[in-house]
Amino acid sequence: MTEAVLQAPVVKTAPDRERLAAFGFVAPSLLIIGLVFVLPLALLLGVSVLDPKGGVTAAHYIRLLGTPYYLGVIWNSLRLGLLTTLIAFLISYPAAFALARARGPLRSILLATLFLPLAASVVVKAFAWTILLRSDGLINTVLIALGIIEDPIRMIFTQTALIIGAVNIFLPFMVLPIYAVVAQLDSRYAEAAATLGASPLVVFFRVILPLTLPGIIAGVALVFSLSVSAYVVPTLLIGEKYPTLATIIAKAYLLAREPGFGAAAGVVLLGIAVIVVALSAMLSREPT
Amino acid sequence: MSEAAPHLVVSGVSKRYGAATVLEHVDLTILRGELVTLLGPSGCGKTTLLRAIAGLAPPDTGTIRLAGRDLTHEPPHRRNVGVVFQSYALFPHLTVAGNVAFGLKVRGTPKAEIDRAVERALALVKLGHLGGRRISALSGGQQQRVALARAIAVEPDVLLFDEALSALDRKLREEMQVELRRLLQEVKATAIFVTHDQDEALTMSDRVAVMNKGRIEQLAEPRELYARPATLFALNFVGLSTRIAGQVVSSQNGMVDVVTPVGRLSARGAFQPGASVIVATRPEQLRLGAEHGANAASGRVRSVVFQGSRTLVDVDAGAGASLLAELSGREAEVPRVHDEVRFAWPAAETFAFAAEAAA
Lengths: 288, 359
What we know:
Chain A is mainly alpha-helical. Chain A is 80% helix and 0% strand.
């Protein structure tokens, strides 16, 4: 009895103290996140609406969203992001299942081929594609040598080259999250569905697909936000004739010296990515 | 339809995985409304047999007929079987009601009918109030009930339980055994349970098939299985027993006389004189003291284990032989450790099995 009475206040304050201690542990990382992520974004937003002559202005946004050329640029970015994401998904989904089914050394080899390219810089990989796709590049040389074609096919600096390169470079970011989910998927779910009368197609659409949705959503969010904002890939594989938000941001800062406009383009790009990621997050939480 | 009509007929089913034979020419006939358990140690083939019936592991040879249809080459979704898995395999992306409705939905049953069937199935397992819950919000016992409701909702021709109760804690499992049996009898379901738990098998089934090394060693009612084990394996796997090795010296009218280290014993069995046998009896057959015309042996008490309603007495009968006796709680006289005791038991409850079967 006495013990319980004596202990009561201690028990009561313990969570508060724990919470305080937890906050103390979290504080440094909060500070770093604030300095490294929140502050630059706030600055970016500030620069995009500040008039150098004083006051606030929406001029950069009006220029960006009111000029057909820049709307085309935004569409180029979206197109790159959407196409890359779609094609990467179509390749990755079956690939993730193959990876999950693979056993022993085969699985290790497949995983290594997926992971190793992540160690190489995007610049290196994009350059590698220019070498392969050039008019005097490996693919054309081989095709001509085999007598399949007479004149080199124009591949480099086409949208095809851009999409091939982007899909290749961002593929691991789609495969890995899907693989992580598929590898955890209990085969009993499909068996239970089958014994309940579901044909293989119905099992796929009613059980497998919904259960792997979290992986798909994570992969889509990653690949879309990476490819919509890609800079190196479009610059090296298609160049001037396919301007994207990322390339005009660079131009605004490096060539035109228009930081306000560049910042506005950056905010729009960020906005697009945030919308897609937020939509994905909502989708994954929606109960079915 | 006649109650005694064969409902599920498994004939000559064999299955190999690589070099290992998992099922060896298994025959099994189950009547409509019967509750049958496949009992055996892990690796005996019981789960493979269940999966063969469900269509999840098609047999290499043999046929499976259910409710008059040959299912041998039908895929699982055209078999109309219900399976309750050990892990339940409830769909985590669906609610409780969504899980129970799944089988009816994929069959294209009208919505109103599905709703009624789901309500009925959930009421049957006493979860009528939890239809809207997510699976992750349920306890293990509740999940077990949902899995059962999901399998029952489609009114399958046979319900298959793959170690379905083993994930529950002991008390809940024992309650569920009784409740599940009552429930299945109520809906007149035909069911096969797979388990390695002999108590579960004896509690829940009309008949038990003891499996060993891909074969059914004995298919019998629980009482008969316990009282008249057909093989040494069945004797060992179900219940406790005293086992003493010996040699047959004479044989007549289905009884043999066996010379053992504890003396001459009579047992049921047909063996040639000279055969090596194991003589066995159940512990509750042993009585303190001597009795005329019965088997008897004496020795020194090695241990006394009190288990509430009964007391188990282990006696060292010398020469490596031991006697296991069960004394009911009402017996006044319980020996102590190191006491010299003499036990007698009826020859009619003593069995002889071929000794080589022990290998």
